[in-house]
User: What shape does this take?
Amino acid sequence: MPESVTAAFSEPEDFESALRSEGIRSLLVTTGGRFRARLTRVSLNDISLSAAEEKLPRISFVAVPANTLLVSFATGTGAAPSWGGVGLRSGELITGFAGEQFHARIGGPSRWGAIRLPIDHLLEYGAALTGKALPLAPGLRRWRPPASAGRDLRGFHAAAMRIAETRPQDLLDREAAHGLEQQLFHAVAECLAEGRADGDARTARQNQAVMVGFETLLGTAPGTKRSMSSICAALDVSERRLRGLCAAHLGMSPTAYERLQRMWRTRRGLRTADRAESVSAIARLNGFHDMGRFAINYRAAFGESPSATLRRSRETAAIGSSIATLKVPGEYV
Assistant: This one.
């Protein structure tokens, strides 16, 4: 059944969880500041649409779901997302084929839209519309569709977002939802059939495979602090090449990204710690052994001390425990 939801987020972890269905595996904010994000999602019969507004730079790791073509584009004048080191220019789209894995990055306040379509249905629709197969292939591809087709696609996407936010009950009308879905299938097929796409160069695919391997490596024994030489040896790449790829895909060095991941794992550990766990124990578990330097870097990243994060998480847990205690069936306290 068609449905829609709009939500605001003040914690990156909550925003990350909300984006799971988009294929987001992880989301790391890269600078300090007050996190704010807003997400509107519309689910039709076969197509899902999203529109997001984010305030802080971040890096995410994405795995496109099976039988899905992921289409994304900028919807505002802010920082345009970069997918797999490929930046978007005005009027362009980027597509990720089913099973594709890559890093997506924004460098500042950003607004973006996404559409997820079943590949088999899109191919059928495209063949019926154009009389030939759509030029879809595995990989990440940047497209420049005809101006009119691009405007139509963005217009239908924007209309769906407006309905979701102002008249969500209209999406419960199956005929209206079906009509919108057909318009979206048509618009995407037209953009791909008549647009120009960057070639899926062999070198680009090899570079992306290195970055996926890098992400996978950091996910094994996540508390381990790795040197640049050990990372390069494990990936069988030169330091120069890995530094260049990380600069393009992540906007930072390999060791800075590795440290960022450990810092965010520490924060998550502090937010979910039980009463027996201490700041130092959680920090050491994630490879931080100089507590003075760790506390300085933590405050710079998150705007509060690690002990403040731990204390706040315990206060929240205590409140939740009190509420649960009061909710005794058949009794009032």
User: Anything to note?
Assistant: The first strand starts at residue 3 and ends at 9. The first helix runs from residue 12 to 18.
